[in-house]
Amino acid sequence: MGTQSRNILEVLKERPIISDGSYVFVLEKRGFVKIGPWTPEVVIEHPEAVLQLHREYLNAGADIIQTFTFFASESRLSIAGKDYDTKLINKRACDLAAEIARPGNAFVCGGVSPTGTYTDGKGKAAVQEEFKQQVNIYVDNHCDFLLAEFFPYVEEIEWAMEVLKATNKPVAVTMRIGPLGDWAGVSVEDCAIRMAKAGADIVGINCQFDPDTCLKVIARMKDALDKEGLKPILMVQPLGHMVPEVENTYEGYFALPEFPTALESRLLTRHEARKFAREAYDLGVRYIGGCCGFEPYHIREMSDELKVERGFEAPGAEKCAAFCVNLNDSPSLKDMDSTKKKVGRDYWMNLRPSSGRPENPRLQELQGTLTPKPVVHTNPLNQ
Questions:
Q1: SS3 state of residue 352
Q2: Are 144 and 109 in contact (CB under 8 A)?
Q3: Are 13 and 284 in contact (CB under 8 A)?
Q4: Tens digits of residue pLDDT in 49-70
């Protein structure tokens, strides 16, 4: 990919960048992260699992491998009852990310999480001390840039920015907000302006809401920034589940009955991820990735969608579905009438998937439209 020796901001001025996807949710499904604490001690207890996921995202076309250090602040680890401290976890996470990213010419991103100290009201000095504990490790381990993500309060981001900018590394910041703005009631527009004025090179949102909602929010941010004459690079990493009914809440998908262990029926299809990448790019977003729910195959499709704009294909591109152009060539499927229309971009990009549940409206629409018909298969071995 040819990015390792360059500043990420230089690359972003030339082309879009695809980031990696979810670590917490994917590794929880694989049995390495515990629901509830969501802390990343897996980097110490099962480093091979983290390395494998890093490798999968790189193969999918990610330009960035982020350290798996989510919620590794001292206050969060204390609440979770973990024996590992921030320094130990973050150092190991840096080593794992670099082991995969460096040979693959990808950027290493040091992830900075919000602190329990802020919500406990312990004050700016205590909060910034926690940020310093996180950030110093990334500086010592030569991470290419820093990302402060998943922040519900813009004030905490402003406090974090004073620490992050002192490193002289490029800094990205994202908030987990929807149309209502931050959790203290600060508007979307004011959040964007305050993040940019605090010195963020890259500004955006991540998690909590689905791609459709996130694109609405980033469009509002862009308009506000343009009016102020501020030009940070825009970034979006949405939730990997469709959750439109929580758009006008503060807590997003946390409010769903299915959160956190029954979200599978809401998972984005690969084609929805591809559509999101295209719409984000057309909107002017140049740092495009995914958060909770996004898996390597989603990232692969996004990378493939923007391969012309990026100037190269992902290592795993040859395995990409490419809108199922070969579906009808399959010996086991070619005689089925139902497969003959499932070819091409228009079909897959406009598909409205059902959940498969009897009470689901989409399933009700399909009932009675699928006519049973015998299928005669030709054995290719007898031809």
A1: coil
A2: yes
A3: no
A4: 999 999 999 999 999 999 999 9
- Separation of alpha carbons 367 and 350, rounded Å: 19
**Helix or strand or coil: residue 154?**
helix
- When mean pLDDT is compared across 167-176, 178-187, 203-212, 347-356, the lowest value belongs to 347-356
328: enclosing H helix or E strand: none
d(C-alpha 335, C-alpha 92), whole Å: 52
- The DSSP bridge partners found for residue 235 are 204, 287
Give the separation between CA 300 and CA 352, rounded to whole angstroms: 21
Is the previous residue joined to 374 through a cis bond, with omega within 30 degrees of 0?
no
**Residue 66 pLDDT:** 98
Please determine, for residue 381, whether its predicted confidence score (pLDDT) is greater than 50: no
Helix (H) or strand (E) holding 147: strand 145-151
> Do residues 155 and 198 lie in contact, with contact meaning Cβ atoms separated by under 8 Å?
no
Query: pLDDT tens across 190-245, in order?
Result: 999 999 999 999 999 999 999 999 999 999 999 999 999 999 999 999 999 999 99
- What is the rounded distance in angstroms from the CA atom of residue 323 to the CA atom of residue 341? 11
Alpha carbon distance 162, 213 (integer Å): 30
**What's the mean per-residue pLDDT of the chain?**
90
Closest CA to 41 of 69, 65, 79, 67: 69
Residue 314's closest CA among 55, 67, 62? Answer: 62
Inter-residue contact 246 to 256 (CB < 8 Å): yes
36, 98 contact by CB (below 8 A): no
Tokens of 174: 């994202």
Residues across the chain: 383
Q: Which residues pair with 64 in a beta bridge?
A: 107
- DSSP one-letter string for 95-130: HHHHHHHTTTTPEEEEEE---HHHHTT--HHHHHHH
Give the pTM.
Answer: 0.91
- Cβ atoms of residues 143 and 101 within 8 Å: no
> pLDDT tens for residues 116-158?
899 999 999 999 999 999 999 999 999 999 999 999 999 999 9
124 to 114, 156, 159, 191: CA distances (angstroms): 13, 8, 7, 19
